[in-house]
Design a protein that fits this description.
Oligomer: single chain
Low-confidence stretches: 418-422
Mean pLDDT: 89
Helix content: over 70%
Bound molecules: beta-D-glucopyranose
Order of helices and strands: HHHHHHHHHHHHHHHHHHHH
Number of strands: 0
Shape: globular
Length: 478
């Protein structure tokens, strides 16, 4: 009887996590959808290349801003309300961008949508992390990353289905599609509870117990309440920006910013961005190369993220980090070689890239979003994970922005003439190869950094992680 009840509770937590993880679908969808829409809206509004760049950048800047502003609000008003507000912005933003009558409105509405992407990108994993039983916390939070990858693929497939060369306004319905997952998130979150940990940190013990009774096995409920209570008794300080920079939280901060640094500086988004060119080099034709790249890369990304769900609470965070990052480093060296040596074979390049995506999908992808929600104490978990999230968006922008500059700088050092206003296809392949080697070097540095800083949080309650920092202990000794 008790066993069946526990199974039902586990089922309920999985459903709660799955609904909240729809936030990941929106993250993936809204970052991915714009690339298919750009060629059409560029013609429709007669945009210059730099206007298109501004449009993309505004979405990213909105995300940085959204993460920054929503951090303290998640600690103050709660995790659930911030996700609800993001869902509202996602829905209205999808309508607004799709209906935008002028370029200016399109830009402002992309920024507006960016706010929701930034806020939900940490509030959703944070919510899932705080509502999950310790044993399956990693798996449940990784569902967020899974839905990011599903969102990227869904955006691509829906853009392809809607694209119509005879209708310059087909970018509008492409953007409207985002309303559907936004409504699912909004309606779903409306019925979901606040997290017991946040409620407890606000002194709402009875409410917290009520929710714990629904999601935890009875034998753990009082223990959880006691652990949360003792935390709050020790830590009666106010949640604020000053608190997060105190010495005892220094390691947590280094971990959150550091993992996002390595997640972005191994070049994930440039590899995804560059994949159509790699398929082109392998002999696929123009549009065919772009389709093959998006579908094959997207599917490999989804499949290996599914695999990570089964590994993250079994193998643990550290092992996955080292396995993943070693694979990423080797794959990047191979990709560099593929570009440097034309004789290496084009399929060698394609396979190296897919291996790279697979290793990213089992490690840095899910680990980044999971670890930023695990390392901070309840009081400042909102602010803390928002710093992780805004680092992610900041580094993302920086890498994409410098990729082209790095490759063309290497080109000019090698005396390769890169015409003004040209795109990456004009840059010498060996220059691109060199940039991938730079990313490989970053991955190696990440391995050393990870040895000292990646904590093994598998099976450790959030309260124990907090106690570990309070005792002044090192991340690798957790
Ligand atoms: C990263 C994104 C990336 C995506 C790819 C996420 O974890 O934060 O920048 O595009 O994974 O799957």
């Amino acid at each position: 009887m008790v066993k069946r009840e526990n199974r039902n509770k586990k089922g309920l937590v999985i459903v709660i996590a799955a609904i909240a993880a729809t936030g990941g679908l929106l993250f993936g969808f809204d970052t991915g959808v714009i690339s298919g829409a750009i060629p059409f809206l560029q013609d429709f509004f007669e945009l210059t290349d730099s206007q298109v760049e501004n449009l993309t950048a505004l979405g990213l800047i909105g995300a940085v801003f959204g993460a920054l502003v929503a951090g303290p609000i998640t600690d103050y008003l709660g995790r659930r309300k911030v996700i609800l507000a993001s869902a509202f912005i996602f829905a209205t933003g999808a309508l607004w961008t799709g209906f935008a009558p002028t370029v200016t409105q399109l830009m402002i509405s992309r920024f507006y949508l960016g706010l929701a992407i930034g806020a939900s990108s940490f509030a959703v994993p944070l919510y899932i992390s705080e509502i999950s039983p310790t044993k399956i916390r990693g798996t449940l939070v990784s569902m967020f990353q899974l839905l990011i990858t599903v969102g990227i693929l869904a955006a691509y497939l829906s853009d392809t289905a809607i694209a119509d060369n005879n209708n310059l306004e087909c970018w509008r319905p492409m953007l409207w599609v985002g309303v559907v997952p936004a409504l699912i998130l909004f309606i779903g979150m409306f019925f979901l509870p606040e997290t017991p940990r946040w409620l407890m940190s606000k002194g709402k013990e009875e409410e917290s117990r009520k929710i714990l009774n629904k999601i935890e096995s009875p034998e753990f409920v009082e223990d959880s309440i006691l652990a949360m209570k003792s935390d709050i008794a020790i830590d009666s300080s106010q949640a604020n920006w000053k608190e997060i920079f105190k010495p005892w939280l220094r390691n947590a901060l280094i971990i959150a910013v550091g993992i996002m640094f390595f997640q972005q500086f191994v070049g994930i988004n440039t590899v995804i961005y560059y994949s159509p060119k790699i398929f082109l080099a392998a002999g696929f034709q123009g549009a065919e190369a772009a389709i093959a790249a998006s579908v094959i890369v997207g599917v490999v990304n989804v499949l290996f993220t599914i695999l990570s769900l089964f590994m993250i609470d079994r193998l643990g965070r550290r092992k996955l980090y080292f396995i993943g990052l070693s694979g990423i480093a080797i794959a990047l060296v191979c990709m560099g070689l593929g570009f440097m040596l034309p004789g290496a074979g084009k399929w060698f390049l394609v396979i190296s890239m897919l291996v790279y995506i697979a290793f990213f999908a089992i490690s840095l992808g899910p680990l980044g979003w999971l670890i930023i929600t695990e390392v901070f104490p309840t009081k400042v978990r909102g602010i803390g994970s928002s710093i992780g999230s805004l680092s992610n968006w900041g580094f993302n922008t920086l890498v994409v922005w410098t990729f082209y500059k790095m490759a063309s700088a290497i080109g000019s050092a090698k005396d390769v003439v890169v015409p003004e206003g040209s795109d990456l296809s004009d840059i010498c392949p060996s220059c691109i190869g060199s940039v991938f080697w730079i990313f490989a070097a970053v991955a190696v540095v990440g391995l050393v950094w990870g040895y000292f800083f990646i904590p093994e949080t598998k099976g450790v309650s959030l309260e124990k992680i907090e106690a570990h920092w309070k005792a002044g202990k090192k991340p690798k000794d957790l």
